[in-house]
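Protocol step 4 of 6: record predicted structures for both targets in the notebook before any analysis. Target 1:
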Amino acid sequence: MVSSRCKTVVKEELKSFGLHFIIVDLGEVEILEQISEEQRKQLKIELSHSGLELMEDKKSILIERIKNAIIEMVHHTEDLPSKDFQII
C-alpha cells in the first residue's frame, strides 16, 4: 500500500468481512480476529479487484517493507540517510 486511498480501500474491505483492525499502514495490516482460509481467499480476491495484493510469504513481505522504507525516505524525508549506500 502506498497511499491513503489504498489504506481506505483495505479498511473498507476488512469492514465488509466483519473484521476489526488495529493497524492499517503501508504494507501492513493487523486484525483482531483469526480469519479462516476461505475468508483469506475471498479477501485476496476482493483486494485484487482494487489493484491490491495480499502477500503471505515472509520474503515478499520483507521486500515490500524495504520498498516502503525507501519510498518514505526518498519522498517524505528532508534529511539525508546517516549511512552511505554504495552500489557494487
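Target 2:
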Amino acid sequence: MKNIFQEEVTEELIQRIHQLNPDTQGRWGKMEVAQMLAHCNVMYEKAFEGNQSKPGILKRFLLKFFVKPIVVSEKPYKKNSPTASEFVIKSEKDFELEKSRLITFLQKTQKLGREHFDGKEYISFGSLSAEEWNNMFYKHLNHHLTQFGV
C-alpha cells in the first residue's frame, strides 16, 4: 500500500485527479465523475470537519467489527462494493469545486503527516493507527480513480 503521508504519493494522486475532466466516464458503477469526487470528499469531511453525529451503539458495533476490517485493511475493494448511505451521492455536483476540495484535503492530510493521525479517532470506527488511516485514505481514493481510468 502506498503511503499517502509521503509527498510524492500525494502528488501522484493529485496528478491522477488532474487527468479527470467533467466528461470522464466510469468503467463501472453509477456515479458520474463529479459525484465520485464528492463521494471521496466525505471521508475527509468526517476526518477533518467533525460535523457528523456519532452512530448509535448498534451501528457502532457493526461498523467497528464488520466494516472497519474491510475499510482499513490493505485488501483492495471489489468493483461495485456496497456503499454506506452517508457516502451515496445522488445529486449533481460541481466538478471543479469537488476536485479542488479533494486536492485541498489531500494536501492537508500529507502536511499534517502520519503522527497527526496515529491514534486519532474516526467517527465511524474509533481510534485508528496511522497505518489504518493511510490504508483507508489511499485505498478508497485509488479505487475510485481506477474506476474512472486514471
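Step 5 preliminary note on target 2. Residues 7-16+29-76+95-147 form one domain. The chain has a mean pLDDT of 94.
Proceed to step 6 after PI sign-off.
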